[in-house]
Amino acid sequence: MTIRVIVVDDQAMVRAGFAALLAAQSDIDVVGEAPDGAQGVELSRRTHPDVVLMDVRMPEMDGLRAAHHILAPPPGVTHRPRVLMLTTFDVDDYVYEALRAGASGFLLKDAPPADLIAAVRVVASGDALLAPSVTRRLIADFARQRPAARGRPALRLKALTERETEVLTLVAGGRSNAEIAQTLVLAEQTVKTHVSRVLNKLGLRDRAQAVVFAYESGLVTAGE
Question: What residues pair up with 209 in beta bridges, in sequence order?
Answer without folding.
Answer: none
